[in-house]
């Protein structure tokens, strides 16, 4: 198992590698696992202008492949995560089912709790870290730790992703 210090050092090295954002996101996933734990981890980006969400990275690409876009719905989840810029936490499959229609797939992967952590840069939510694990996993202490220890690394990775997309003539 990787320690938090090892994961932070690996992320610092990864952001310097070519071929971004893949190396940065993979290292961020390892840091999330070390800091708070996540059986399933995905990164979503959001574009206010287009109103689209895009899955940029996943540690389970067979179940949750990166790519593609979907319209961002306006609901209680988006009000909490985007308008109030607060994490969304659901610690049982029933609470997940209230918000996510793919809850059967989530449960089939052994996940029954989730933490959606907004990534905020300049007052704007530019994406979310989506962490899922066993029931009851995302305690208030883990949520606070995620907010304190993952905000800067997550912002760096999403800004790297934006920069890579801008260089390639596209914006995620």
Question: Layout of SSEs?
Answer:
Elements: H1 4-14, H2 22-35, E1 40-47, E2 52-58, E3 67-71, H3 76-83, E4 88-90, H4 93-97, H5 103-108, E5 113-121, E6 124-133, H6 140-167
Antiparallel strand pairs: 1-2, 1-6, 2-3, 4-5, 5-6
Helix pairs in contact: 1-2, 2-6
Any overview of this molecule?
It contains 6 helices and 6 strands; from the N terminus they run H-H-E-E-E-H-E-H-H-E-E-H. The protein is of the alpha+beta class. The protein has one domain (4-167): Beta-Lactamase. It has a 6-stranded antiparallel sheet with strand order 3-2-1-6-5-4. 33% of the residues are buried. The model has no long low-confidence stretch (mean pLDDT 93).
Number of helices: 6
Report strand %.
15-25%
CATH superfamily: GAF domain
* Helix percentage: 40-55%
Q: How far do the termini sit from each other?
A: 32 Å
CATH class: Alpha Beta
Provide a brief overview of the structure.
With 172 residues, the protein is α+β, with helices and mostly antiparallel strands. It has helices at residues 4-14, 22-35, 76-83, 93-97, 103-108, 140-167, and strands spanning 40-47, 52-58, 67-71, 88-90, 113-121, 124-133.
What features would you highlight for this structure?
172 residues; Beta-Lactamase; 42% helix; alpha+beta
């Amino acid at each position: 198992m990787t320690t938090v210090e090892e994961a932070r050092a690996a992320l610092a090295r990864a952001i310097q590698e070519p071929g971004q954002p893949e190396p940065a996101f993979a290292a961020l996933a390892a840091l999330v696992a070390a800091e708070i734990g996540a059986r399933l981890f995905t990164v979503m980006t959001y574009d206010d202008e287009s109103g689209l969400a895009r899955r940029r990275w996943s540690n389970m690409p067979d179940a949750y492949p990166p790519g593609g876009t979907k319209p961002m719905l306006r609901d209680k989840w988006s009000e909490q995560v985007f308008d109030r810029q607060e994490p969304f936490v659901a610690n049982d499959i029933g609470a997940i089912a209230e918000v996510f229609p793919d809850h059967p797939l989530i449960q089939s992967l052994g996940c029954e709790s989730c933490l959606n952590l907004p990534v905020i840069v300049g007052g704007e939510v530019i994406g979310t870290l989506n962490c899922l694990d066993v029931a009851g996993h995302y305690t208030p202490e883990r949520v606070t730790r995620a907010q304190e220890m993952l905000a800067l690394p997550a912002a760096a990775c999403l800004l790297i992703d934006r920069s890579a997309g801008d260089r390639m003539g596209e914006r995620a």
